[in-house]
Design goal:
The chain is mainly beta and 63 residues long. The chain has 1 helix and 4 strands.
């Protein structure tokens, strides 16, 4: 059985908002919702969470 395919026109991150990190017990985390635009409309793909202390690789982007 072939899987249904969805053509994604665009993907964008929402506005980051502060969150509590359960691992290091600080308010150093951020939540960001990911939104996709398809032919059927806009959907929320999911939420990404990252902590500047526990996940420094997410925050040390250059360029």
């Amino acid at each position: 059985m072939a899987a249904d395919r969805i053509h994604i026109v665009d993907c964008a991150a929402g506005t980051p908002r502060p969150d509590w990190c359960d691992r290091c017990q600080t308010s150093a985390a951020l939540l960001v919702e990911l939104h996709v635009l398809t032919a059927e409309g806009v959907s929320t793909l999911g939420t990404v969470r990252g902590c500047s202390r526990c996940d420094p690789h997410l925050f040390n982007r250059k360029g």
